[in-house]
Design brief:
The structure holds two protein chains of two kinds. By secondary structure, chain A is an all-alpha fold. Chain A is built from ten helices and one strand. Chain B contains ten helices and one strand. Classes of the chains: A mainly alpha, B mainly alpha.
């Protein structure tokens, strides 16, 4: 177990993980292309891809996604966290397929096994680039910057519970009461209050909805 | 057709689930290790802090909104891989880890194994039975969670990171202020700029502005910001607002 944990902590493990993740995301896009379901992205990005599918002009989807991909791949090794929203889901999942289909390599996306393979190869390449940037600029992130970011990151976590609570209160009275009760309960038992606020709001507003009394809003 | 979707979802979910859950676990060792996920995912997982019920309910809220989105559009939203998968995986891992030396979601291997199963489950269910979720319930979840998450990423996170940068000293603070403001102009979110500012500023504070690593960092960050500005069409906006342009 310790040994496996060590293997997964190496730089090359990141390259493999990124390759597998990219294979999955391009596979999901392939499924969306042929079966109409499964795109791992927002509705508006899927629509951007659909415009290409319907008109044959994929330049919108490709330009939108390529910008994210380049920015995130350069930023990832600097800060130590690769943003999978911009790089994987949008860049690799939408931009690369759009480019491939626009260039006439439709079968690479249409065929599910080929799509997995394509994604894997691209993810592997990106992983190598990212690790290479880390090796070339090894001291890019000084220890002090890390300490600042970890401290701030931990603090932001504490803000989500109250934010959900305010949001639930603003949404409706039943959801607000449920969120307050849930948050208080979780606070009393020293659990993260974000869980209590969501559960309480959903339970209260949901019960009203199921009973058919009140509109909940 | 449905068999085909189930089979493909199993493959995509298991592969993606394993890799991204492991990548999420590696984030908590960044920047020593290269992780993958998102800064907001770090914040949200820290908020749940290894408590299974909190991870489960946070993921469930977004699972419902994703189910609502996929009906009719076929788009799962980014939340499936950003939030549902890492948090549900963390919830299950925290149920059977006894290791008190680190938080449950910091076990890369366990996260990977459990992530494969969670991913397969999430993709298969969302892609097939998404129509079972009452539409009103998903509207409630969406209306509560989306504004909260937006406030988190657009206001609270930039604010706390900027405060941390200011506390570190004048040089870090100034860089974070300047780059944060510029990124807010270009992309509508100051956080990436503030992080660039912390990187450059604390490096300059430790080694000076003329040190090689500082110069390289500044050059890379400027190139990056220019690229983002170009792809978002910021240059046309800039020219219009200063010189009037065609309007």
């Amino acid at each position: 177990m310790k040994k496996l944990e060590q293997y997964l902590s190496h730089d090359y493990a990141f390259v493999i993980l990124l390759a597998v993740a990219a294979a999955a995301v391009v596979g999901a896009t392939s499924m969306y292309f042929t079966n109409g379901v499964g795109m791992t992205n927002e509705i508006f990005v899927a629509e951007l891809f659909d415009i290409g599918k319907n008109t044959g002009d994929y330049s919108g989807a490709a330009a939108f996604s390529a910008g994210f991909l380049i920015a995130r791949v350069l930023e990832g090794p600097l800060v130590g966290v690769l943003d999978i929203g911009g790089s994987l889901m949008t860049g690799v999942g939408v931009g690369i397929p759009a480019l491939l289909i626009a260039s006439g390599f439709t079968s690479l996306i249409e065929s599910f096994p080929l799509a997995l393979l394509t994604g894997g190869v691209i993810g592997f390449g990106l992983g190598v680039i990212i690790i290479a940037i880390r090796k070339i600029a090894p001291n890019a992130a000084p220890a002090n910057a890390t300490a600042i970011m970890i401290g701030a990151g931990n603090k932001t976590g504490e803000a989500l519970g109250p934010l959900v609570l305010f949001s639930a209160v603003a949404y409706s009275i039943p959801a607000g009461i449920g969120a307050i009760a849930g948050a208080l309960l979780f606070y009393k038992f020293k659990k993260p209050i974000v869980g209590g606020a969501i559960l309480g709001a959903m339970a209260f507003a949901g019960i009203l909805l199921l009973l058919g009394v009140g509109v909940g809003v | 057709m449905i068999v085909e979707v189930v089979l493909k979802s199993l493959v995509v979910g298991a592969l993606g689930g394993a890799a991204i859950a492991a990548g999420a676990a590696r984030m908590f060792y960044a920047p020593k290790l290269q992780g993958m996920g998102a800064f907001r995912t770090i914040g949200e997982m820290n908020a749940c802090n290894g408590d299974p019920i909190s991870h489960l309910s946070f993921g469930a809220g977004f699972y419902i909104t994703s189910a609502a989105a996929v009906v009719g559009t076929g788009a799962l939203t980014q939340d499936v891989l950003h939030r549902v998968l890492p948090n549900w995986t963390a919830a299950i891992v925290s149920l059977f880890t006894k290791d008190k030396t680190k938080r449950p979601f910091e076990n890369i291997f366990l996260m990977m194994v459990v992530g494969a199963f969670v991913g397969a489950f999430v993709f298969v269910t969302l892609n097939t039975v998404s129509s079972l979720v009452p539409i009103q319930l998903s509207t409630i979840a969406k209306s509560i969670l989306t504004p909260a998450a937006n406030n988190m990423i657009t206001i609270v996170m930039p604010l706390i990171f900027l405060w941390a940068a200011i506390d570190d000293g004048k040089i870090t603070g100034s860089w974070a202020f300047a780059l944060g403001g510029i990124m807010q102009m270009i992309s509508g979110n100051a956080l990436p700029g503030i992080i660039f500012g912390i990187l450059i500023g604390s490096n300059a504070q430790e080694k000076g502005h003329k040190a090689k690593s500082t110069v390289i960092l500044i050059a890379v960050v400027i190139a990056l910001i220019l690229a983002i500005a170009y792809f978002r069409g910021f240059h046309t906006k800039l020219i219009t607002q200063f010189f009037g342009g065609a309007n």
